[in-house]
Amino acid sequence: MFFSKFDVISFIHGLEHFTNRDYPIVLENIKKYLKPNGIFTGALPHKNRFNYRMCPECNHIFEIDGHVSSHNLESLKKIFLDNNFEIFHLSNFNLKYALISSGTLKKMYLYLNYLFNLKQTPKQIEFVVKPLK
Known about the structure:
Elements: E1 6-12, H1 23-33, E2 34-45, E3 52-54, E4 61-63, H2 73-82, E5 85-91, H3 95-100, H4 104-115, E6 124-131
Parallel strand pairs: 1-2
Antiparallel strand pairs: 2-6, 3-4, 5-6
């Protein structure tokens, strides 16, 4: 079977749409599409808060954005290590992203916090990993 292989696969705000049981399958498929020494990179919400709704027609309860999992640095690290990935970068705060996605007052607050090394408010987890041989 022939399929394309890639140097980099990015998955931005997607892993939170899978359960812990799904990760071995998802990550094994990512590995199949990576070239040797290829990397897998992406981002997902940090400690995602679920936003549930109920369908008025059938009373089915669902998460409005389709999120089924929530992660912090430790839980995501465990998933990558359990699925044989080497971690190059795993972070829960990116000042540049926070500044772009925020209003003027929030930008000033974030930048001052960053300058004075105060506690940051994480928005997302970013990762760069590579399958182990």
